[in-house]
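Example 3.2
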Amino acid sequence: MQRICGWCGKDLGEIKTGPDSEYLISHGICDECAFHLVAEVGMPLREYLDHLEAPVMVVDGDGVVKTANKPAQTLLQKELPDIEGYQGGVVFECVHSTEPGGCGETIHCSGCTIRRTVMETLNTGNNHLRVPAYLDCKTKVGVCGIHYLISTEKFGAVVLLRVDEVNPEETCIIDNS
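Structure, written as C-alpha cells:
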C-alpha cells in the first residue's frame, strides 16, 4: 500500500498490508509538514489531532498515553485527565492492567498486540495498518472481550496509535456485584 502525506502529497513509501486489504492509499504526515504545523504555524499537536476523524492517541516509549484526540476520548468514554499520563492498558481498561506489576509488567503483556505493535513501530520506524488486536476490558456491564483494528505511525519520539475499528464480543462476563 502506498502512503502519502495528507498535507503536501509527498510519497511516504510503502507499508505492508494484509492480502485482503481493500485500501490502496494510506495518509500520514511527513516530518516537514508536522514541523510546520506544530512549530511554525503554531498549531498545537492536540489541535492537529482533533482535526482527524479517527480516534488517535500519542504513546511514548514507556507505553504511556501522552494525549488523545476528541474521537479517542469519545471512544474511551474518558476525559483527557483520565487518559494523559496513564499506561495504555489502564486507558483501554484492560483487566490485566490491575494485576500486580500493572500494564506492561504482567505475563499477559508480552502477548498484547497493541503494546507490541506500538513498541515495534517506535523501535524500528515501521508503521502498521489495520492490525487485529484483542483485549479483555472492564466495561459498565463487566468484563468484555473487545476486538480492535489498530494502525501505528512513528511521529518523532512517539507513536500515533489510531483505532480503526472496534467490535465488542457478543458475550461478556456480567458483574452483578
